[in-house]
Each structure stands twice: as structure tokens, then as C-alpha cells.
């Protein structure tokens, strides 16, 4: 029988080797942990995945997406300091404001973000940033509505349009934000009168989403609809022939040109208050504000880039230039509760 005896030098050798291996493993795993961010997203995976892939490719940082349409703010509240969230992404200023109200976002300082994102598209404390813009526009049937017959959002309340307008319900965040912008510019009494006039002019009970308003124009239910700009791009470029057909005689109208500009909203995000990877989270937001990601917003979802130095895609260019309402976007969130009370009173 042969017994192996390790000499002290051999033991020292193996001790050193195993120490190197163990510390190497620990370093590797801590590096892996440090180089990962978790994104809590209200934006759908098909929209976010291309951004995440491009980010991972450029930086080597891995990004996990936790997607849900609702409940992520409550989840972050419940998780408290143990929350794994590093980044929050959502659409609409009212939804971003839920996170602001619950103090779930961290004010950050980033020269890149300050340079790329205009001041009216950021939180006043720099705790959120808009990365894409969407205009709430009018879609009109060109055979039934003269292109110069409607120029301002206020025109929707004129008696000439009685029974000719379609919209989704007023209490949807998109319409609530639109009304909030009218309150900001014209005052609450004028805004309420406008909402009343609009409701008088509806062709049918407010229903469906923005896409179905275009369908209703196609079906002859109404002649004018209020929609978000990107839905027009999505329908025009849809893989479904029937959806492309809905846009056949439809033109879009940017409102209040020559005046305050067309009301816009944003998709945006911020760094989670208890992020364990703040630097990486900021890096992700910076990535979203720069060329590659900004072009993706216009390519994938027909949204306008928030960074003014990014050119529009071909589809967006075909809609023509427009001027946007530069009202600080957080004003919309402030006035949203007042807008909702008006919506309830007029039955929109
Ligand atoms: Fe939408």
C-alpha cells in the first residue's frame, strides 16, 4: 500500500493556488453581481428588449427586466431598502409622478443627461428624465374634413363638429394630460367649457383605445379622432393589411401651430432610490438619451426622440415638422387631479 505524504512545500503550493482560485472566483462573482442592473419596466418587453440588447452589447453590463403593467411602485414600496430595482421605466408623466409622490426615485446629476434632455422634459429635482416624446394629435378623414378646417385643440368644442368626434374615455392618462395642458394655458373654467363642448360633439360613447378611434373613422362612425402620434405610424406600418387600410383617407393634424404648439407627453424613467448600482443605473439612462437608443425610439415605436440633436426617422419626417408645447411636463402631473374632476363632471 502506498501512502501519499505531502511535503510542507507542496501544502503551501496548493494553499496558494486554491486561495488564488477562490479569490478569483469571488472577484469574478462580485464583478458579475456589480455589472448587472435590474429594470422595473411598465413598458412592454418588445419595446425594451432591443434597448437592453444594445446596452449590453455596448457596455458589457447585463440588464434584467422586470415587466408589469401595474403594481411596480407598490412592489418597490413594499420592498423598501431591500428592493433590487435600479432603474424604473414608464410612459406618461402621471405614471412617472406616482414614483415621485412615493419618493421612489433618486435625484441624479449627470452632465450627459442635462445636455441631451431638454429642461422641460426632466423632473424639477432631476429625479426623472423623458427619453421619447409623443404628440396627442388629431386624425381626420380628408374626404369629410377640410384640412384647414381644424387647427387648434380648442376647435373640437365648436358646434360644427357635433356628432363627428371619437375619443377613448377622458379618464385615460393620455386624455387627462391633454386636458391638464388646456387648464395650464386657458384656466380651469375655459377648460371645463371646452370639455363639455367636446362631449357634446362625440359621435359615440368614449370607448376603446387610440387605434380603435382610427378604425371608427374608417367605419364612418366619426370624422375626427384624438390619438397619440405613434399609433398612426404603427397602423400605417402594420403587418396586418386591414390596419393599414384604416389609415387610407386619414391625415394627422398637429394642433395649435403658430400658437403654443401641440401638447406632448413622454416616456421616461429614473434611478430607483435604493439602487445598489447607482452608477450603472445612471449609465443606462445616459445610454437611453444618446444616439443609438434615441433612434430606436423612432424606429421601433414611431416616437419622437427627446434629444433634439437626433434626426427623425423617414416615417416621422413624412408627417411634417411641428412645434410642440414647451409647458414643463411636470405641470401636467400637477394639474391632472383637477383635470380628472372636470372629466367626471362633464362625463367624458
Ligand atoms: Fe400608448
Number of helices: 14
Sheet having the most strands: 10 strands, mixed
Q: How many domains?
A: 2
The total of beta strands comes to 10
Name the average pLDDT: 90
Order of helices and strands: HEHEHEHEHEEHHHEHHEEHHEHH
The 3D shape can be described as globular
Which spans have pLDDT < 50 for at least 5 consecutive residues? 1-8, 19-32
Task: Write out the CATH superfamily name of the largest domain.
Answer: Periplasmic binding protein-like II
List keywords for this structure.
2 domains; disordered N terminus; 14 helices; alpha/beta; D-Maltodextrin-Binding Protein, domain 2; 348 residues; binds fe (ii) ion; 10-stranded mixed sheet
Topology of helices and strands:
Blueprint: H1 8-34, E1 36-41, H2 45-59, E2 62-67, H3 72-79, E3 87-91, H4 93-101, E4 105-106, H5 111-116, E5 129-141, E6 165-166, H6 173-186, H7 188-200, H8 210-218, E7 224-228, H9 229-236, H10 241-246, E8 250-253, E9 264-272, H11 278-289, H12 291-301, E10 304-305, H13 314-318, H14 329-346
Parallel strand pairs: 1-2, 1-3, 6-7
Antiparallel strand pairs: 3-9, 4-9, 5-7, 5-8, 5-9, 5-10
Helix pairs in contact: 2-12, 6-7, 6-14, 7-14
